[in-house]
Amino acid sequence: MKDPKLRVLISAGQIQARIRELGEQISRDYPDGTLQMICILKGACFFMADLSRAMTRDVLVDFMGISSYGKGKTTSGEVKVTKDLDVSLENSDVLIVEDIVDSGVTLTYLVNLLEQRRPKSVRIAAMLDKPERRLREVKVAYVGFRIPDEFVVGYGLDYGERYRNLDDICVLDGA
Ligand code: IMP
Ligand code: MG
Model's pTM, two decimal places? Predict the structure, then answer.
């Protein structure tokens, strides 16, 4: 996709290489038991598809819709569940798969919510982390890339629902 507002920050090749490493690392960290991956819609679905296939152990996948953002670039501070899980988490190791950790508001809410469902453990895997923007402290066990405070799109990330299908992660200038 040619668009003068887009500048590649992380290429598709870099993304895939990092995901292979993460898949191996996470698989080593969970040698046995049920590993329930939870994809946070919609942004994380590309990361989920690639990360789950980079795992060298059996996993279960499910999806959850949650939103803390309006149509623009800043958080509304409001979190709501738009689609809940189909599965019980009791006694499972849970891996939340998220596209990006920004303020941390969404994940703080989500971890609290899921911990009430009595899982064995809950950890987070995020493709991107923007640590400068944090408002709530949240422990992210697995991070693809730490990035500076710039608004990015592609590989699942959107601006007003556009650009999710880019292979690369790009900075969106002047939107
Ligand atoms: P948080 O609650 O502020 O951590 O927000 C996390 C959510 O905000 C992510 O799941 C994204 O949907 C969205 N988000 C944060 N930063 C960006 C960005 O740079 N590009 C696109 N979406 C973003
Ligand atoms: Mg999201």
Answer: 0.94
